[in-house]
Design a protein that fits this description.
CATH topology: Rossmann fold
Strand order of the largest sheet: 3-2-1-4-5-6
CATH superfamily: Isochorismatase-like
Number of strands: 6
Structural class: alpha/beta
Largest sheet: 6 strands, parallel
Strand content: 15-25%
Number of domains: 1
Helix content: 25-40%
CATH architecture: 3-Layer(aba) Sandwich
Number of helices: 4
Length: 192
């Protein structure tokens, strides 16, 4: 069993309308992570542990967009419906919102890239990260790997992630890569 301590933080990665069914870049069954993540959110709130929500917050001409020579359709454009968090996701007033990819020329798959996430975690004396959200094979993977590189103990919430799988098996390979790098796979039943 894993205990949520005062040194733990929940990181919910990019659960935005554009990454859910009906969005510009939907992750298959991306919305299925919402009720599971809400259960984690309740547990972290009850433990008094901080919760961080990362989001893609792209300008209209972001480098990752096909229109700019990138690989993705335009998505999560600042101040649009697509960039909003899924309406059922329990984002609270005291939670931290981490915007990434807001510079036109910076990709930013990781919640740490070009943000103050690491600084905030250090200020709160966080040692353990619990990471779930979208998509397993991109922003979740990069956030987990960056967290490990920065010396955090990282738990991958295996029941609260979904992948894009541009190539078949990408998500499975991403999970293997995260575990090999030191992440620990857990699900709700493993939490005290």
């Amino acid at each position: 069993m894993v205990k949520i301590s005062k040194r733990a933080a929940l990181i919910v990665v990019d659960v935005q309308n554009d990454f859910c069914p009906g969005g510009a870049l939907p992750v298959p069954e991306g919305d299925k992570v919402v009720p599971v993540l809400n259960s984690y959110i309740e547990l972290f709130r009850a433990a008094g542990a901080p919760i961080f929500f990362t989001r893609d917050w792209h300008p209209k001409d972001h480098v990752s967009f096909k229109t700019q020579g990138g690989v993705w359709p335009p998505h999560c454009i600042q101040n649009t419906w697509g960039a909003e968090f899924h309406p059922a996701l329990k984002v609270g007033k005291g939670d931290f919102i981490i915007s990434k990819g807001f510079e036109r020329s910076v990709e930013a798959y990781s919640g740490f890239e070009g943000t103050d996430l690491d600084e905030l975690l250090k200020r709160l004396k966080i040692k353990e990260l619990f990471v779930g959200g979208l998509a397993t094979d991109y922003c979740v993977k990069h956030t987990v790997l960056d967290g490990l590189r920065r010396g955090y103990r990282v738990y991958l919430l295996e029941d609260a992630v979904r992948g894009v799988d541009v190539n078949e098996g990408d998500s499975i390979r991403a999970i293997e890569e995260m575990v090999k790098a030191g992440a620990v796979k857990i699900s709700l039943k493993d939490l005290e």
